[in-house]
Design a protein that fits this description.
Layout lengths: L12 H14 L3 H17 L3 E6 L2 E6 L6 H10 L4 H7 L5 H13 L1 H19 L10
Antiparallel strand pairs: 1-2
Helix pairs in contact: 1-2, 3-5, 3-6, 5-6
């Protein structure tokens, strides 16, 4: 893990109360909650059109208004040989600005997205190597 630097920040009592509530809810130290919220906030400001969504695998960058994760857009983009027109046809439910937002996020944070793509491929390979379940006859 990267080394952190101490920083002094003054928080309103209301904001501190919300952070402490989130820390209790997620069983994490308040400092980790603050760091996570700031990281996401900075990334959303840098990449308009991207939000963060919680799920079983943790929080992830998602195209706003779609429920589609950035890594999913990038996977399709790569399968389309990085052809934007082909990407638009493959994901017609996303507008041009939404696709551009996802690709911009990928350009800003390629390691995050590449790690997720690798993890998804490993999971797929592991599951596909298992024997298929037999069908039941009723």
């Amino acid at each position: 893990m990267a080394k952190t630097s101490p920083v002094s920040v003054r928080l309103s009592p209301e904001l501190l109360e919300e952070i402490e509530r989130e820390a209790r809810r997620t069983a994490r130290p308040a400092s980790r909650v603050i760091q996570s919220v700031l990281k996401e906030g900075v990334r959303m400001r840098r990449c308009p059109g991207i939000v963060f969504t919680a799920g079983p695998t943790g929080r992830r960058a998602t195209v706003a208004g779609s429920g589609i994760d950035v890594w999913e857009v990038v996977r399709v983009y790569k399968s389309c040989k990085k052809d934007f027109a082909a990407l638009s046809k493959a994901l017609p439910q996303l507008s041009r600005p939404q696709l551009e937002a996802a690709l911009y996020y990928y350009g800003c944070y390629p390691d995050e997205i590449e790690d997720r793509l690798k993890s998804e491929e490993e999971s797929f390979n592991e599951l596909s190597s298992r024997p298929f379940m037999q069908r039941f006859r009723v």
